[in-house]
Amino acid sequence: MSEGLQRLQGFLEMDFVQNAVIVGVLIAFCSSLLGVTLVLKRLSFIGSGLSHVSFGTTTIVAAIVMIIGYDSQFDNNIFYVLPVTILCSVLLLLSGPNSKIKGDSALAMISVGALAVGYLFMNIFSKSANLSGDVCKVLFGSTAILTLKPETVSVCIVLSLLVTAVFILFYNKIFAITFDEDFSSATGIKSKIYNLLLAVIIAVIIVLAMNLVGALLVSALVVFPALTAMRLFKSFRAVTICSVVVSVVCAALGILISMLPEKGTPIGSTIVAVDIAVFAVFSIIGFVNQRLRTL
Amino acid sequence: MAQLSCNNLSVGYEGKAVVTDISFTVNAGDYLCILGENGSGKSTLMKTILRLKSPMSGNIESGDGLLPNEIGYLPQQTVVQKDFPASVREVVLSGCLNGCGLRPFYNRKEKQLAAENMERLGISDLSIRCYRELSGGQQQRALLARALCATRKILLLDEPTAGLDPNATLEMYDLIADLNKSGTSIIMISHDLVNSAKHASHILHIGKQSVLFSGTMSDYIKSDIGRRFVDFMGGESA
């Protein structure tokens, strides 16, 4: 164990590890902000859906680049992934209850469709010797966060700050349209515009979070902190604050724990495992609390 | 000029009209009760009045100093609200949002208004309680307080007593009557003929596809359809 701690100390002195911790914590912070809203709007799976879209986009763009003649890696380039993801997010969130294909089936379609097309393109066009390794990296984000380029780090920081600022400025509006969209529209709140804003923020968060935990685990990062906080807290503000704290603590712990063993554990899965553990603890406390009150 | 007037309004969805040729006016202080069977298009009419839907034909005008977004609304409970973590205060305060414009946070005046409305509806002691843990009657009071934060002029109530027990139902109707006496115009949807029409000054009775009656309460009692209703009410109280 002390050997592990020593290794951890060594790691923490390295630049790229410090970067990873900073970016990881920021991403965890942002992704938990909208968790409550997504859970309540029955959109918990939008994280998975959108992250598959960005996976699909990544591979298709990489294939196109290769056909044109560039030699490109399947890295997750924010600059073209983000617009496509935002577009899909807007389509999903604004389709509303009256569209021909309902929310959850639309989500399923886009999500698995993008996944299939992405993997197909990857197989046809990849020159990489380690295809399954590449796929695994995208899906589970195994080491992606440790290999972030400096410009990706700055983009992550800027986007996280932006998301946080927008969330704080529109906190009351987000609350109102989540709680009762009809009432808000009827009393003159531009619900459509705020839903659009919400869709954009969600897309940004998902693309950011993919760097940390990979495409398959993004939903966990969005949903777990919110559900955990909802075990114990009763007001929107308390739940939001608690889920942010839980998310940040879990991400930091997860990143650190993943460096303890000699071979290291995959960062994304470790973070989600910590999330699950904290959720279990909160559930038990909530249950005991309720029992005590009824006694 | 009337606060709200609907002229030859037809409402419906997906291109199909549910009710056609609706005309009525609401003046300041009126208490209009919209009666009709389930599925007769009452809620569609309400959504149209609230401008959540556009009318299929005809028009809705607001006047007497009433702006289109000054209508308070008490909706039916949605699924989302059943497990929404929100304190009563947060819910009530969200009614003040239409006065905020682009200002991100509530100011002292709005917080004061929310506190007054909670006081008025007797839920001040519940302000930090969780909305989803309240009883049905308390939840309706919270939503009513929220509607009052949005406006004092006119309230639209969609089946305000759905799912309440008999006691809470009576209390709710008294509360609404009190609000009406203090000058708030009321438009209420109901299929509970007996209680809801007691306090009403005007009736709009919708049948299948068409309006059966639109006018004052006293004319309604004299009309054919109204007489049937009076008999019904007489039978009930005997």
Question: Could you explain the architecture of this structure?
Answer:
Chain A has 295 residues and is an all-alpha fold. Chain A has a single domain, classed as Orthogonal Bundle (ABC transporter involved in vitamin B12 uptake, BtuC), CATH 1.10.3470.10. Helices cover 79% and strands 0% of the residues of chain A. In chain A, helix 4 (46-68) runs antiparallel to helix 12. The longest helix of chain A has 28 residues, at 267-294. Chain A is globular and about 60 Å long. The model of chain A has no long low-confidence stretch (mean pLDDT 81). Chain B is an alpha/beta fold and 238 residues long. Chain B folds into two domains: 13-70 and 154-238, 3-Layer(aba) Sandwich (Rossmann fold); 80-150, no CATH class. In chain B, 36% of the residues lie in helices and 25% in strands. Chain B has helices spanning 42-49, 79-82, 88-93, 108-120, 136-150, 166-181, 193-196, 217-222, 224-237; strands spanning 4-13, 16-26, 31-36, 57-62, 71-74, 154-158, 185-190, 202-206, 211-216. In chain B, the strands form two sheets. A six-stranded mixed sheet of chain B has the order 5-6-7-3-8-9, sandwiched between helices. In chain B, strands 2-1-4 form a three-stranded antiparallel sheet, covered by helices on one side. In chain B, a hairpin with a 2-residue loop joins strand 1 and strand 2. In chain B, helix 4 (108-120) packs across helix 5. Chain A binds chain B through residues 36, 40-42, 168-173, 175-176, 178-180, 182-189, 230, 233-239, and chain B through 47, 50-52, 67-73, 75, 78, 80-81, 83-87, 89-91, 93-95, 97-98, 100, 104-106, 128-130, 133, 146-147, 150-151, 156.
